[in-house]
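Appendix B. Raw example, untouched.
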Amino acid sequence: MIIKFNNLKKAFTMVEVTIAMGIIVLLSTAVYTMFKSVGDSFKHSQNKLDILQTTRIIMTGLRNELRNAADKPQVFNDRLNIPVSEEKTIQYYYDEESRRIYKGEKGALNDPDPDLSEMKQFLFDDGQILSFEYDSSYRDSDAFVQSELTLNAKVWFKVSMKILYSEKMNKLSEEEKAKILANPDDDPRVKSFFMMITPRKVNWLLQATQ
């Protein structure tokens, strides 16, 4: 006996196609979500690294200039003037409105200030720097006493900054910006950086302590 089987034609039903498409969509969504999460994490880490690097550049420059100042740093017109020689003064200016730091040069300490257009602007996003402050022990006698107790040194210069460390200011909502600016210390994304420098130069160090 010879049995003949007819050719069986296989075909996908509409239900099978729908299930397959659903699985593909789910897998695609999962893969996209994973890659987006990795990308966001990388951007976040890169942003923090860029901010930290720029902060280090500012602080390192200030530290070297303050430690090697040829005369007492002075503040005129809200600008920090650091005489590094008799004919060269480094100047820093913090614009509170735009929250940007500018660095420039001029001749002697009493020479006219450079225009903002002539000064270097550090590469922070607009508003990233929330504060830039400086203080010195030689401003009054009480500060001298305090500095001797804390650092066992008669002269120091302190520079401090508050930075929106983990987020881009221009990416935040206006409500978030207002909240951070009102109480920066209450926001965990805001970090404080500071340093206290004792100058190497003996001439103005002795002059300041007299």
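End of appendix B.
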